[in-house]
Structures
1.
Amino acid sequence: MIAALRRSRSRAAACVYLAADATLPEPAAAAARPLHVLLATDHARLALLPWSPALLRPSHWQTYAASRLEQLHGTPTQPWTVRVIDEPPPHPRLAAALPTALLEALGVVPAPHAQAVVRPRPAQVRLELTDRLSELVAKRRLASGVLVELNRIFATVATLRDGVLVGLRRRRIDRAGAAADAQAIAATVAAERAGAALEGAPIWVAARQVGDATAAAAALRSAGLPAELSPC
């Protein structure tokens, strides 16, 4: 469901970016040609699951992920579909919960009572955060550092060590309190770098709007952190 290792270049496909407040494509339009969808990270509830040798099957990871996501984000008010990104031991695994209604509209999961005439073709769906992390690893071989991704609702702080995701923190963004947000994000980044023993590692800042990323990077540098714009 969340494939982030490559970008399709098929001209026959419709490429769509869905922000948190985006309008979903109409089923009839979606059925016209395959969809390649990049989802804003705001759509997902995330959890980084530490490796456990007791989790022997994918179903065990699914159960653990659902429990952990509920602990972090509370009981969902609408149906969610949970997926766990497979990683070799002993690496942590990223779990993501996405609204089932969204995935039904994109044809990723079958919608109950859907009419075949308007059912969309299955979409290739990527999550923006995992896309960025995969590109960072590809461009900065064995990447170590902290990625700060700014969306409309959340700021996500993801820590990479030798190309492996080892830390994940999120906080809501209050556009009216940008200065307070910058201070809180800087404190989170500093704590994540220290916790992963990456005090000298780079900090990459990414956002859909270059101005947002530039302002956030400047705020982090003002806090004494060597932030730069993400290459991805």
Note: The two ends are 21 Å apart (CA to CA).
2.
Amino acid sequence: MNHPTITVASDSPARPFAALPTQRSIAEMNPAQRSELVRWLLSVMMLAQTFEMRTSARTIYDAVVLLADDIDEVQLCLAFSSALNGDPRFARALRQKGFSGSVGEDQKNLTLSFVLGLSGEPDWRNVPERLLETSSDPSILRTARIMLGK
């Protein structure tokens, strides 16, 4: 079967991906190709969610969570694109779930805090304020200060 191709821009020569790759072709991708496909799908998912094409966004989300190495990042992207429309539901649900024990927990919590602020949640400042008191990571401290205007 011959699928239409999409050229993905990158620093390396353009590599075509099938618009609808088969399960076998996905399994044969090297990690860089798989990562590039995930980024492309995340971009399309975020656009669909931002423009309230919820069914399409959900379909892409369901596919991306099977491919992505970090599902938290996929969920943060969905929450961010929803927040652009003032919809805090995904960010609230993510806050309830939390990132406890996951790799990059503080970075993810700061990102979620930003998304909550973007969607108009009044308590978005709690995370950066807490991290200013508890974190020793210079990049976390710098980001928290910037977020809080300190």
Note: The chain is about 65% helix and 5% strand.
